[in-house]
């Protein structure tokens, strides 16, 4: 049985545990393999409608091609992360009653998973914002918001399903951006001096050569860094919220103090054992040793 995620607690606590915001597939009813649909593409070998089990899903909710996902054309599965929403919905919200044994729960369980995943991702970022800010007001705001979202996630299913996620998202984004400005200002002094104007939020930086650069404090929120060369670069304090890092080269890069980096972003990039990641993130198994 899974332990309950600790979303609540003292909102002013400086260090919050993000372990409960990591996927625990052994305690999940394979919700990501069922609730979401995917289209045949470079990431998925087949089409799969939403709310239907993947053809590779076993009766015990394991994946029959788990060790061969990439060679079998299911790269997208090696990138995805639910931020712990899967086990929370399966074990806490639905008390360990699976959609297979209780098909009447399917619709609500899948809907709850979709909402919970977004909220868990927000909790992931708010926890970091709370840790990284030195401004007591911002720490308080991030903590209060984290607490409110934690209560929504842990609350009644009926309330969760009608939650105004967009409104909540807007509030989260505001706090994350304020903390970002603070952290970037702190780190930009260690950067390349004035970073060029092309390094801005939402920038199209596909395939760009940013190798061995001091990108400290860069504002790369939502930037398209697909296949960008970031090998050996220092991204301390660089805001990577929502940045697209698919196939970005991170070999030997230092992302240990990058801001708002997530496991799916890391999983989608290419790095090596010399890549430095924040302590809460894991080296993807598909990264080759240098
Ligand atoms: S291939 Fe495996 S991991 Fe991917 S959706 Fe299907 S069952 Fe899940």
Ligands and ions found: iron/sulfur cluster
**Secondary-structure-derived class:** mainly alpha
What is the number of E strands?
Answer: 0
Tally of domains? 2
Helix-strand topology string: HHHHHHH
The best one-word shape is globular
Spatial separation of the terminal alpha carbons: 38 Å
- Give the integer mean of the pLDDT values: 91
Q: Biggest sheet: strands, sense, closure?
A: none
Q: How large is the radius of gyration?
A: 19 Å
Indicate the low-confidence ranges by residue numbers: 1-15
Write the layout of secondary structure elements.
Blueprint: H1 75-79, H2 85-93, H3 106-132, H4 136-154, H5 157-161, H6 165-188, H7 263-268
Helix pairs in contact: 2-3, 3-4, 3-6, 4-6
Task: Offer a quick outline of the entry.
The chain has 290 residues and is mostly helical. The chain is 33% helix and 0% strand. Iron/sulfur cluster binds at residues 33, 54, 56-57, 63, 65, 74, 77.
Polypeptide structure, described:
The chain is built from 7 helices and no strands. 33% of the residues lie in helices and 0% in strands. Helix 4 (136-154) packs antiparallel against helix 6 (165-188). It has 2 domains: 19-32 and 80-184, no CATH class; 193-290, 3 Solenoid (Pectate Lyase C-like), CATH 2.160.20. Bound molecules: iron/sulfur cluster. Iron/sulfur cluster binds next to loops.
């Amino acid at each position: 049985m899974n332990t309950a995620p600790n979303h609540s607690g003292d909102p002013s606590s400086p260090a919050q545990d993000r372990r409960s915001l990591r996927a625990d597939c052994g305690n999940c009813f394979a919700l990501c393999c069922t609730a979401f649909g995917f289209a045949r593409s470079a990431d998925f070998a087949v089409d799969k409608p939403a709310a239907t089990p993947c053809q590779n899903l076993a009766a015990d909710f394991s994946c029959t091609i788990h060790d061969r996902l990439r060679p079998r054309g299911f790269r997208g599965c090696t990138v995805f992360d639910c931020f712990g929403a899967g086990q929370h919905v399966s074990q806490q919200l639905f008390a360990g009653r699976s959609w297979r044994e209780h098909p009447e729960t399917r619709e609500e369980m899948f809907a709850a998973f979709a909402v919970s995943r977004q909220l868990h991702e927000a909790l992931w970022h708010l926890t970091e914002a709370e840790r990284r800010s030195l401004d007591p007001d911002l720490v308080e705001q991030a903590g209060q918001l984290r607490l409110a979202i934690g209560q929504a996630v842990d609350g009644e299913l009926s309330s969760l399903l009608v939650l105004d996620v967009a409104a909540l998202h807007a509030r989260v984004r505001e706090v994350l951006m304020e903390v970002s400005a603070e952290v970037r200002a702190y780190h930009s002094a260690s950067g390349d001096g004035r970073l060029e104007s092309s390094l801005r939020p939402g920038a199209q930086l596909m395939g760009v050569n940013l190798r061995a650069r001091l990108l400290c404090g860069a504002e790369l929120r939502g930037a398209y860094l697909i296949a960008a060369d970031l090998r050996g670069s220092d991204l301390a304090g660089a805001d990577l919220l929502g940045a697209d890092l698919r196939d970005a080269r991170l070999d030997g890069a230092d992302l240990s103090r990058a801001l708002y980096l997530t496991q799916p972003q890391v999983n989608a990039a290419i790095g090596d054992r010399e890549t430095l990641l924040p302590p809460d993130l894991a080296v993807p198994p598909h990264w080759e040793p240098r």
